[in-house]
């Protein structure tokens, strides 16, 4: 059973828009490609935080080509994203009824909510360096949404942080390659 079906439950997974369901049904390996608009914040701490999450090589802003390799195995999924050729890698796995993602020195735990239009990710716990738990309230303004975009898979990630303001926002679409 696909990772996201395990976390959401089969009934909730089945109600997702077809492009979202298809992307999260990868059994072994598949590549998706598309376009995204990126904007990183300008606060002095943004670069330091981007270094921790291995996001510092992403373009600061603009519209770019995106390619994502999804690799599924018995332990979860690996996502190898490339924004304008710049890498962003993460590992995702199920933890109880939550989804965990390891991105650089940061580990997130997400609650997933699904309906017929979208899949929403809400950060419920965050750790730095695998052991330093960060206050969940710092991530309340983190919005992640997956949806259908003209028959394609659409995504929006918008992270605002206390004291820092806008950290990173990227949105766009993908389709199977």
Automatic annotation (TrEMBL):
A Pfam family per the record: DUF4166
Name listed for the protein in its UniProt record: DUF4166 domain-containing protein
DUF4166 domain mapped to chain residues: 16-174
Family annotation (InterPro entries): DUF4166 (IPR025311)
């Amino acid at each position: 059973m696909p990772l996201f079906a395990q976390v959401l439950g089969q009934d909730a997974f089945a109600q997702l828009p077809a492009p979202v369901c298809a992307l999260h049904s990868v059994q072994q390996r598949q590549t998706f490609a598309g376009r995204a608009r990126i904007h990183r914040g300008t606060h002095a701490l943004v670069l330091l935080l981007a270094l921790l999450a291995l996001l510092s090589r992403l373009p600061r802003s603009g519209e770019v080509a995106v390619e994502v390799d999804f690799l599924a195995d018995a332990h979860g999924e690996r996502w190898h994203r490339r924004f304008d050729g710049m890498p962003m890698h993460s590992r995702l796995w199920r933890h109880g009824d939550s989804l965990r993602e390891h991105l650089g020195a940061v580990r997130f735990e997400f609650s997933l909510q699904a309906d017929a239009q979208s899949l929403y990710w809400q950060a419920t716990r965050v750790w730095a360096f695998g052991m330093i738990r960060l206050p969940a309230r710092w991530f309340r303004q983190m919005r992640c949404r997956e949806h259908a975009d003209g028959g394609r898979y659409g995504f929006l990630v918008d992270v605002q942080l206390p004291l820092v303001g806008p950290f990173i926002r990227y949105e766009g679409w993908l389709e199977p390659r």
